[in-house]
Amino acid sequence: MPVVRDLRVLLRLRDFRRLLAVRLLSQGADGVYQVALAAYVVFSPEKQTSPAAIASAMAVLLLPYSLIGPFAGVFLDRWRRRQVLLYGNLLRALLAAVTALLMAGGAPDALFYVSALCVTAVNRFVLSGLSAALPRVVDTERLVIANSLSPTAGTLAATAGGGLAFAVRLAVSDSDATVVVLGALLYLCAALTSLTMAPGLLGPERAPVRPRLRAALAGTARDLLAGMRHLAAPARRGAAWALAAMTAMRFCYGALLVMLLMLCRYALSSGPAEGLGLLGLALGVSGAGFFAAAAVTPWAVGRLGPERWIAVCAGSAALLEPALGLPFATGPLLVASFVLGLITQGAKIATDTVVQSSVDDGFRGRIFSVYDVLFNVAFVGAAAVAALMLPPDGRSVVLVVLVAAIYGAVAVAMSRFERR
């Protein structure tokens, strides 16, 4: 298979192997941690979950990224990225252990959300650092392949971590705290693995600077404006369009995820345990779609170009999402999970490639942090819209049609830009 051959080529690169190992462990831990949170917030038998409750939880956990994200970019362009991966994962291991103690002790929800917020806040630094560092360990000719395999492998690791979390939760009497402890151990392993790389390997190119906090905060707005001007230049207009398209597709994905949670919790299951199992199956099928995207996208980008491939992904979603979603049945839902996994990851691989190949190394941290902010604002906005539109059982024809219309608009916009 071409994807296996490409993976063998990349795995010959020692530094790529090490960066990939950090990503796999880190995102595997993310999968474990996120499933534990979902099980605790959505599928606990004593909790009566509503779309508004899910939207509130997403807002608490994700909206602060809008403040943290830009600062992460500024520091990633000043700090050694290897050190960000090391200390970020160490801190997440400690904070995840605190979350487990709060779960086990039945602490108030407010304390639980604060702890979870801290874990996911540090995640912005780690994921942005991984994306910004990839061009430092792969040459330009292999960048598209690396963007297909590395983030997709990370997503599959997160999916595998989620599956492991389900297994541990069933084996240890539905203990969400035990699952979070497992996530903390994986974060610790990711931190130790980062030590196999030299401190200066991952850049940035200029000598690392440790500015005083006040000076860094004062310069954040100026640095971000410089990054946005860099992105707005004619030579990088394709990156700006790709980011806008991916943001809209992220909105669609967020709205459909909230609908999936409610359908699994109420409409398609007889109780929380069965609903959690169905959610795990749907996420596993979606992970298979991510893997298929890794196999298909390099060929598609080579034939069509990244912008046209994004348009094809969005157009396919506009046609298939209502056909598979409107029955509100388990079989079509699982097929839709695969299709949306393939489409979403395929578009993301193309977007990452456009951004990385268009943006100078000294600006990548800032641009990828803005990328993350757009992702999270779109995701939370989608959850809020879904909370207003979804009935208690999750069945909403209006939401399915709205999402299809947005996908269609993205396909048209990207097609027109590509032709120009």
Structure description:
The chain has one domain (2-419): MFS general substrate transporter like domains (Growth Hormone, Chain: A, Up-down Bundle), CATH 1.20.1250. Helix content is 82%, strand content 0%. The protein has helices at 2-11, 14-41, 51-62, 65-76, 81-104, 109-133, 143-171, 176-194, 213-232, 237-267, 272-304, 306-325, 330-358, 361-389, 397-419. Helix 3 packs antiparallel against helix 14 (361-389) and helix 4 (65-76) packs antiparallel against helix 14 (361-389).
Task: Give a quick rundown of the structure.
By secondary structure, the protein is mainly alpha-helical. The protein has helices at residues 2-11, 14-41, 51-62, 65-76, 81-104, 109-133, 143-171, 176-194, 213-232, 237-267, 272-304, 306-325, 330-358, 361-389, 397-419.
Q: What's the SSE blueprint?
A:
Blueprint: H1 2-11, H2 14-41, H3 51-62, H4 65-76, H5 81-104, H6 109-133, H7 143-171, H8 176-194, H9 213-232, H10 237-267, H11 272-304, H12 306-325, H13 330-358, H14 361-389, H15 397-419
Helix content: over 70%
Total count of helical runs of at least 4 residues: 15
The level 1 CATH classification is: Mainly Alpha
**What is the CATH architecture assignment?**
Up-down Bundle
What number is the mean pLDDT?
84
Radius of gyration over all CA atoms, rounded: 20 Å
Residue stretches low in confidence (pLDDT < 50, at least 5 long) are none
Give the total of beta strands: 0
Strand residues, percent: under 5%
User: What is the CATH superfamily?
Assistant: MFS general substrate transporter like domains
Instruction: Look up the CATH topology.
Output: Growth Hormone, Chain: A
CA-to-CA gap between the ends? 35 Å
